[in-house]
Every structure is written in structure tokens, then in C-alpha cells.
Amino acid sequence: MQVLIKPIMIVKEWSDEQLIAQVARGDTAAYEMLYDRYCSAVMGFALKITGDQSLAEEVVQETFWRVWRKADLFQTQRGAFTSWFFGITRNLSIDMLRRQKTQVQPVSETDQIIEQTADPSTDVPEAAWLRQRHQQMRTAIETLPKDQRSVIEMAYFRGMTRQEIAQATGEPLGTIHTRARLALQKLREELQMQGFEE
């Protein structure tokens, strides 16, 4: 009996990176532990992106299926496990949303401003490079939670100070500072995942 209990206790103490390495070797106990750790977080993240319970449930199922099949693709030197893992969730959520939407969506203010920043006098290779960078930035911004995205849009696309954002939203200044800090951290991680080079 002790032999069966001991491995379970060890698995519960393992880091995400240790667990995914075991999953890559076909270890179902490690896989179940990852599922227990992240199932609700994946559901919440997918629900924020899709806004639809049934779509979010599909995303959860497909995310964990891909983690099981592609665990060997995770490389610690390329970033944190959570960035890789939630990148899968994000991509699946966006793909499912795109498949569901049949009508053209209005262009967001963020898209308009990013498009306007391209210099029309640049040569074709430079313009293509800029367009790729703009697309990476747009994709990264879309992954942010709505409240964090709003802070980034007001600060960087409208030129508002954090004090002005706090006044405009009615939120405490400390909350705005926190949202901005979290948003910038997430953007940095997301852009690194996309191979964005500064």
C-alpha cells in the first residue's frame, strides 16, 4: 500500500516542467495532475476569449488532448510551461471563434491605430516586416483580459496617463497600476512566444 501512495505524493510536489516531462514519457498520473492543476484556469481563460460555455468546454478538452499528444514539444529553454500551455488554449479559443463567426466584425480602435502607424514610404520588405510585427502586437493585445486591455489601449493608443485612466474608469489608481503591470508582463510573454524580437 505504501508503494502506491508514495509516487502520488511525489507527483503532487513536482513542478509543471517535471510533470510535462513525465507526460512526454506517457505517464498518466503526471497528466492527471496537470489536468487537476489547470482545468479550471483553462476553462476560465477560454471562456473569457470565446464568451461561450460550450465553446470553452471544447477548448478545455482539445487543450488537454494536445498537451497529451505534444508534450514532447515543450522545451524549458524557450519559456515557462504556463506560457506554452496557455498559448495552446489561446490559439484554440481564437480558432474556434473564427470558425463560429460568419459575419464581418467591425474594426476595433486598436486595429485602426496600429494600421495607421505604418509608414507608407517604406519599401516593400520593410512594410511586410512592420505588418508582421503589427499583427503580432494585435494578437498579443487580444489575449489580454478586457480590463487590462482597456488600460493598455487608453495608455498607449490614446496617450492617457494612469491618473487620467483612473478618473475615466472610476477605478482606484492602485488598480490601474496593477492592471498595467500585469498587462505588460503578459504582453512581453506573449510576444516572446511569438518570436517577437525587440
Compute the gyration radius: what is it?
20 Å
The number of helical runs is: 10
Helical fraction = over 70%
Order of helices and strands: HHHHHHHHHH
Q: What is the number of domains?
A: 2
Describe this structure in words.
The protein is an all-alpha fold and 198 residues long. It folds into 2 domains: 2-100, RNA polymerase sigma factor, region 2, helix turn helix motif (Rna Polymerase Sigma Factor, Chain: A, Orthogonal Bundle); 121-193, Orthogonal Bundle (Arc Repressor Mutant, subunit A), CATH 1.10.10. The chain is built from 10 helices and no strands. It has helices spanning 2-13, 16-24, 28-50, 53-70, 81-100, 109-116, 124-142, 146-157, 162-169, 173-193. α3 packs antiparallel against α4 (53-70). The protein is elongated and about 50 Å long. The chain starts with a helix and ends in a 5-residue tail after the last helix. Mean pLDDT is 76; it is low at 1-9 and 116-123.
List keywords for this structure.
about 200 residues; mainly alpha; Rna Polymerase Sigma Factor, Chain: A; Arc Repressor Mutant, subunit A; 2 domains; 10 helices; elongated
Summarize the structure.
The protein is mainly α and 198 residues long. It is built from 10 helices and no strands. It has 2 domains: 2-100, Rna Polymerase Sigma Factor, Chain: A, CATH 1.10.1740.10; 121-193, Winged helix-like DNA-binding domain superfamily/Winged helix DNA-binding domain (Arc Repressor Mutant, subunit A, Orthogonal Bundle).
Topology:
Elements lengths: L1 H12 L2 H9 L3 H23 L2 H18 L10 H20 L8 H8 L7 H19 L3 H12 L4 H8 L3 H21 L5
